[in-house]
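Subject: mismatched residue count in predicted assembly?

I count 366 residues in my input, but I want to confirm that the predicted structure covers every chain. Input:
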Amino acid sequence: MSPVRPQFEDPEQSHCVLGVDPGLNRTGYAILQRSPGKPILREGGVIQSTAGLSLAERVLELGRGLREVICEFKPQVVAIEQVFSTAKFPKTAILMAHARGALLFAAADQGVAVVHYTPTQVKRLLTGSGNASKEQIQHAIRNELGLEKVLEPNDVADAFAVALCHYYSSRVAVVHESNREIP
Amino acid sequence: MSPVRPQFEDPEQSHCVLGVDPGLNRTGYAILQRSPGKPILREGGVIQSTAGLSLAERVLELGRGLREVICEFKPQVVAIEQVFSTAKFPKTAILMAHARGALLFAAADQGVAVVHYTPTQVKRLLTGSGNASKEQIQHAIRNELGLEKVLEPNDVADAFAVALCHYYSSRVAVVHESNREIP
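Triage response: the counts match. Full output below for your records.
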């Protein structure tokens, strides 16, 4: 695992959403903290698997990497990109599904709820268009998080995109929760 | 998990091979114990996932079920069937790959070595033909294990087939090991 920490803030560790962009070679992850205003970027990173290792060893690296992130940030929810069942690249899709299966197990085994979003849902929620380009998504993330630069690498940006998608999709529930916290 | 125990023997729990026939609905497993003569059938069973649950919850049931079996029998090796990257049934293949990814992670996370065999390798080793029918495979398993009846259900038989495939493929190494044990 090689964490990339593009920006830090230091609020209380709670009400976090963990976004995941699954991939066998590289799995991007993103931690967003809920706040009354804009969501707060806690950490973004990439969990890498070692080329040349067996499939079992590679999914082990990914699953353990995600477990570490979960143990550190204790997210309420893991939001993960849905895999395409494309007939175009069946081998790629199947290897990615192995990675995704290991990541789902690692998250669920820690007792964290898992929600799924398709790339189209993510794009539509962030930009209004299900066909948005990578640049449009990057721009939307930068605006939403109040960043000066776009997020690099792409795996991390995609993980923040799915985390943001869940953040805004589940906003009503959060308002309801905070209302209950202040009786 | 709903274990099906078609036959019992009670030798020492060691030198076991765990065969796995992965599937999202039902994953067959089989425990073979090494012996100087024929391999000994320890246990066969099915780990079932609950229909109607989410994908994350289903792979959780499978992964935890396999972990239980591993903790009980402490196998040296997990032998697992390879998934087809068939363009014919991409959705089925992708769901199975999710299950397989979770099972690989669960096994590797317990420190157990994982080996893969294609259905053709399994058939060829057990019957001499890569195109053997289910009945021929069942017949071969019955002979190899000295059983009176064929094994039911099919998931369990397939798990024993891949376990036997590994058992015989790795026999040289076993002889070598036992030679070292008796100096």
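The CA atoms of residues 171 and 177 of chain A lie 10 Å apart. Marking this ticket as 'not a bug'.
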